């Protein structure tokens, strides 16, 4: 498919003092790259392109309904979704030191790192799926997203996911730490709010943090847990 989504987005510009943006055909890359006029595309639409955009957004929407497997197995009431997990991760990225990591890149990486779960679900080590098979399934799901979105935007989504999976860049190290820390914090909240004991989430993350910031935050939450009222 042609990469209409990123091309359309390039044509929207901010209006000073307003809360919305307006479409400026003169700025659109579509005007020079496609055989039809931008005004025709905007007025009449192209069903296949619009269908692709809606399908991508529906893929994202599925993550609001995929519950995190670990919380389901632990008997948590109303467990969070994958989308909720990624949202707080992305917000945490705003707190990262800009001298160490590209904060904007980290925000985007947090938002796509579990995107494959729209197709494969939240596979944990307890699900009995070999690591290699899990990786294969997730890569195929992300390739489908890349091809659906198309263009630079589709490739960026795929590349950010792959960089996270490899875990070698400074941004990936931070986001991987955030992924684990968000789970620790969520475990603490569930224990407090639902009077549960969730020791496995602390045991499996002990000593795994790679950055000073999240080693400190992890320890702080554990200290809070030690002094919090326990279940009877």
TrEMBL record:
InterPro entries attached to this UniProt entry: HD/PDEase_dom, HD_domain, YfbR/HDDC2
Required cofactor(s): Mn(2+); Co(2+)
Catalysed transformations (reactions): a 2'-deoxyribonucleoside 5'-phosphate + H2O = a 2'-deoxyribonucleoside + phosphate
Pfam families (UniProt xref): HD_3
One GO molecular-function entry: metal ion binding
Sequence ranges assigned to domain HD/PDEase in this UniProt record: 78-193
This protein's record includes keyword Electron transport: no
E.C. number: 3.1.3.89
Family of the protein in this entry: Belongs to the HDDC2 family.
Record note on quaternary structure: Homodimer.
Full protein name: 5'-deoxynucleotidase
């Amino acid at each position: 498919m042609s990469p209409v989504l990123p091309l359309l987005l390039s044509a929207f510009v901010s209006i000073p003092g307003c809360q919305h943006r307006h479409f400026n055909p003169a700025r659109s890359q579509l005007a020079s790259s496609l055989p039809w006029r931008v005004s025709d595309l905007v007025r009449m639409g192209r069903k296949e392109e619009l269908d692709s955009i809606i399908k991508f957004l529906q893929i994202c929407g599925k993550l609001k309904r995929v519950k995190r497997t670990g919380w389901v197995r632990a008997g948590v009431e109303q467990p969070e979704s994958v989308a909720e997990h990624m949202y707080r991760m992305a917000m945490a990225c705003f707190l990262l030191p800009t001298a160490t990591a590209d904060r904007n890149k980290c925000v985007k990486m947090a938002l796509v790192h579990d995107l494959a779960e729209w197709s494969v679900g939240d596979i944990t080590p307890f699900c009995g799926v070999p690591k290699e098979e899990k990786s294969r399934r997730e890569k195929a799901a992300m390739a489908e997203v890349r091809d659906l979105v198309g263009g630079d935007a589709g490739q960026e989504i795929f590349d950010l996911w792959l960089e996270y999976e490899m875990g070698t860049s400074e941004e990936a190290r931070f986001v991987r730490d955030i992924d684990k820390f968000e789970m620790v914090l969520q475990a603490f909240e569930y224990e407090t709010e639902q009077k549960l004991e969730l020791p496995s989430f602390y045991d499996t993350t002990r000593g795994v943090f790679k950055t000073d910031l999240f080693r400190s935050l992890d320890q702080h939450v554990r200290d809070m847990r030690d002094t919090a009222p326990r279940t009877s």
